[in-house]
Amino acid sequence: EPDVTIVSGLKDMVVSEGDDVTFCCQVSHEDARDVEWKLQDVALQNNEMNEISVEKGKIHTLTLRKVTEQDIGTVAFRVGPHTSTA
């Protein structure tokens, strides 16, 4: 299986409280398996507040819904040994 790398990393975002914010990360190969999103070192799951999806097989997106001050911090995307943060 080829080593999956990050082609296009996360970008820092500034949003107002109550807004949604979306982070995108593009990887080099489709169907990457060992993928993880974190906010402030806490692993995120797909639920009503966090929408995690993959577009076109390579673009991984995380949408945080109705952010609050508690959501301030570092968002991290990891695929295998490679990490991007914002």
UniProtKB/TrEMBL annotation:
InterPro entries: Ig-like_dom, Ig-like_dom_sf, Ig-like_fold, Ig_I-set, Obscurin/Obscurin-like_Reg. Pfam families: I-set (PF07679). Signal peptide: none annotated. It comes from the Eukaryota. Residues 2-86 form the Ig-like domain. Keywords: Cytoplasm, Disulfide bond, Phosphoprotein. It is found in: Cytoplasm. The keyword tRNA processing does not apply. This is OBSCN protein. It comes from Melanocharis versteri (Fan-tailed berrypecker).
